[in-house]
Write a structure and sequence with these properties.
The chain has about 425 residues and is mostly helical. It has two domains: about 5-65, Rubrerythrin, domain 2 (Single Sheet); about 65-410, Citrate Synthase, domain 1, CATH 1.10.580. It has helices at about 35-40, 75-80, 85-95, 100-110, 120-125, 135-145, 155-185, 195-205, 215-230, 235-245, 250-265, 270-280, 285-295, 315-330, 335-350, 355, 365-375, 380-400; strands at about 1-10, 15-25, 30, 60-65, 70, 75. α8 packs across α9, α11 packs across α18 and α12 (about 270-280) crosses α17. Bound molecules: acetyl coenzyme *A.
Length: about 425
Amino acid sequence: MKPSKEKFTITYKGKTIELPVYHGRQGPDVVDIARLYKETGLFTYDPGYRSTASCKSRITFIDGDKGILEYYGYPIDQLARNGNFMETCYLLLHGELPTSVQYEEFNEDIMKHSMLHEQIVKFYSGFRRDAHPMAVLVGVFGALSSFYHEHMNIDDPVFRNRATVRMLAKMPTIAAMAYRYTLGWTFVDPRGDMSYAGNFLRMCFLNPMYEYEEDEVLSRAMDRIFILHADHEQNASTSTVRLASSSRANPYACVAAGVVSLWGPAHGGANEAALNMLKEIGTVDRIPHFIERAKDKNDPFRLMGFGHRVYKNYDPRAKVMQQTAHEVLKHKGIDDPLLEVAMELERVALSDDYFIERKLYPNVDFYSGITLRAMGFPSSMFTVMFAIARTVGWVAQWREGITDPDQSIGRPRQIYLGPTMRDYVPMSERG
Ligand code: ACO
């Protein structure tokens, strides 16, 4: 991190101090306020962290104004169109794309660890059959911490690598079982001779009475969805993982915390919410009514799958996702009226002043729901798929944070607005 010649000067109550400013390799300069409180008695106030860099990172770069997303410098659309998810995982974890030997070893290591301990499988029977699969995912993934805690030493790279492989390997198995549990279907063990995405689809959809035939187009689409969602720098769930792990907690439990944060409709739950919204709109002629609702400040309705905290331009993932949606629907021979509603909604919104002025564009979730539905998933599974993909991002960011000498326990401060000190009054005297 290079210090800039520029300094940030602040004068408060007659005292002037200079704070260092740093250049990242790309992106805005950053003023280092670590000394601010000590030297001026001031805190900063930034709810939602709109102007705060919470860490330094080499993994993912986003330029929201230009609509750029890169993993270690590689543009997302190049990875999604030419690469595969396993090499993307390797890249996110190691900073470089793998050689063919590294790729084979990594892939084999992941597949070898994809089975679950039989005791973990028993957890499922404690859940209600109608439980949301994200609730099951949080519970079962968090429970991994009870299996792999004994030898926990996050300072040991061997432990970190083993935990990394286990988390990536077991997440799809846990997710597929969560899906089958809700349907009352028997669980399907993973296979070591399929792709990560193909194996996941098989674990979800295999009917044990028949041979399973892999659908290459769907496996490729799933793989691409995983690549598009693999990392997105310091979003809510990743920040949750980083904050939880700043106390040096068990990494499996920290990733389960990330799953919780992802679940919400303002974050990973948006793809489920976007599809539900498209169903509610139903037909193209009803779009103007919903556009008006989205613009009405007194109506809580928002266009789900629209807008992004960072992208104030077209989300680069949404372009690839839209193309994938078309490919999957064509391949399956599905004429989904919701795709027509989505495309018309996008067209109308992008020519409406409200959305233009606020720079609200479709995000990745706008088209992913339609694609996943065409693949045969119910909407309750959409965020689960996002969690599978994002696991590598959470783990890569966890590894980076844990090994960063500047990392200390995350401990924000607050503006206190409650009562000043007062004396305790016994209950009998409280009137
Ligand atoms: N529909 C209608 N209006 C919107 C929308 C939307 N989807 N998103 C933002 N706006 C409006 C806000 O009302 C606000 O208007 P105002 O300036 O008149 O008050 C303005 O645009 C700015 O909105 P903010 O809420 O300040 O934007 P923020 O950056 O905090 O929110 C968020 C980003 C949460 C993603 C928001 O756009 C949203 O709720 N979108 C719908 C949910 C969604 O799709 N989430 C997925 C995010 S991507 C992901 O997690 C992979």
